[in-house]
Amino acid sequence: MLTFHSERTKKRDAMTELDGGRLVRPFECPERVDIIIDRVRATDLGEIRAPEEYGLDPVLAIHDAGYVHFLERAWDDWSAAGMEGEAIPTIWPTRRMRGDVIPDTIAGEIGYYALAAETSLCAGTFEAAQASTDIALSALDHVMATGNPAFGLCRPPGHHAAVDQYGGYCFFNNAAIAAQRALDRGAAKVAVLDIDFHHGNGTQDIFYDRDDVLFVSLHGDPRQEFPFFLGHADETGTGAGRGFNVNYPLPSGTGYADWSETLDEAIARVHRYQPDLLIVSVGVDTFEHDPISSFRLISEDFTDIGRRLRRAGMPTLFLMEGGYAIAEIGINTVNLLSGFDSA
Ligand SMILES: NCCCNCCCCCC(O)(O)C(F)(F)F
Ligand SMILES: [Zn+2]
Known about the structure:
The structure is a single chain. This protein has about 350 residues and is an alpha/beta fold. The protein is built from 10 helices and 10 strands. The protein has a single domain (about 1-65, about 125-340), classed as Arginase, Chain A. It has helices at about 30-40, 55-60, 65-80, 105-115, 125-145, 175-185, 200-205, 255-275, 300-310, 325-340, and strands at about 1-5, 15-20, 20-25, 50, 150, 190-195, 215-220, 245-250, 275-280, 315-320. The strands form 2 sheets. It has an 8-stranded parallel sheet, sandwiched between helices. Strands 2-3 form a two-stranded antiparallel ribbon. Helix 8 (about 255-275) packs parallel to helix 9 (about 300-310).
C-alpha cells in the first residue's frame, strides 16, 4: 500500500497538555510519525511518497474562514499579548452565555474556537495541520485516480475538528476535507468509517445535515469517554442528512469479539449506502495498552480489521487519527494496513 508522509507534520511540537490538573508532555507527539513510518519501511508495506501542496482552498471548503485565520495567527497573537506559556483557553461560551459575538482579544477568542482545554496551541501548529491536510488530499487523489488504496500518515489528527472548532489534538478535519474533495472530483457518495477509540464529533458535525457523506463511528460511550458531549446512538442526522449518521457507542473494556461484531454491522451499513469511496479514520487507540483509552484490542486484531475492511470491496483511503501506546503504534497501524493488503 502506498503511504503519503511529510516531515512537516512534526512542526507542531507542543510542550504541554492539560491532563489531570497538570501540564504534561502531549500524548499526541511528533514521535508518533517516526515510529509509524519506520514500521512502514521495516515491513516493506509499499512506496512512501511526499504530498503535493494544495493550499488553503480545500480547507476553506470545510472550515469557517474566521476559524482558519484565527488558527493562522493565534500563536503570534497569544505571544504578542505577553502570555508566557502555550495557548490554552480558560473560558468558553457555555450554557446561557453568548456564542454570537466573537471577543476581540485572544484570551476570549481562543475560547470561542476551542472545543476543549487539553490541546495547547504553539508555534508550528498551523503549518503541521496544513501539511496533514496536504497528505490527506494527496492520498485521496491517488485513490480517486487509480482505485488503489492509500494511507495518509496525517498528524495532527483531524476527526474532532468541527467547522469552526479545534480540540482533542485536532485542528483541520483531514477526513472531511478529503471527502469534500472526492465529491468535488465527481464522487456522488462518500462514506467515512471512524474506528478511532474516540467519537469523531467534528466529522459528524460537518456532515450532519448531508446525505452525500455517510458518517459511521465505533467509539467509547460518550457517557464515559471524550468527547463526552456528542456520539450517542440517537444522533442519526438532520434534514437531508437524517439516517446518514450512525454512532455505535461501546462500553469501557470492550474486547475484539464485541468490537468486531459491531465493525461488521458498520461495514454492512456502509455497503447499503453504496459509496464511490470509503475513507477510514484510523485510530489505533482501541489497543489494550493505550494510555488514555479503555478498549482491549490486541495487535493481531488490527490485522483482522484490515482483512474485514478489504472484504468490504470498495476504493479505500486510510487516514491516521489517534493512538498513544507509542511503542506499538507502528506495529498496530501497519498490521491494519498489511491486513487490508493481504486479504
Ligand atoms: N489527557 C488525557 C485526556 C485526553 N482527552 C483528549 C483525547 C483526545 C483524543 C484524540 C483522538 O485520539 O481521538 C484523535 F484521533 F483525534 F487524535
Ligand atoms: Zn482517539
